[in-house]
Design brief:
By secondary structure, the chain is mainly α. The chain has three helices and no strands. The longest helix has 28 residues. It is elongated and about 50 Å long.
Length: 88
């Protein structure tokens, strides 16, 4: 259990291969969706971190994040943004 949630072990699902957007509107939509996924992942990471005690090991949470397939575009800046909202 991590953060009060039962985790089912298993390989992370691989997303289907996506075609490259073929026009400017499709490209803008794809960028917007990717940004939305990053923002949602950052917010979820912040919430998960807030639920953990300050002295909890990071390894189980880090492994869970990998298993759940966080967006590959997640950046160090996104991690920093998730941590900034933590108390203390």
């Amino acid at each position: 259990m991590v953060g009060g949630q039962r985790i089912i072990a298993g390989a992370a699902a691989q997303p289907p291969e996506r075609k490259r957007p073929s026009n400017p509107i499709a490209e803008a939509l794809a960028r917007g969706l990717a940004l939305g996924k990053r923002r949602a992942a950052t917010r979820a990471l912040g919430e998960a971190l807030r639920e953990q005690p300050a002295d909890a090991s990071l390894q189980p949470l880090w492994n869970l994040l990998g298993e759940k397939g966080l967006p590959e575009s997640l950046t160090v800046g996104d991690l920093v943004a998730a941590v900034r909202g933590l108390p203390g």
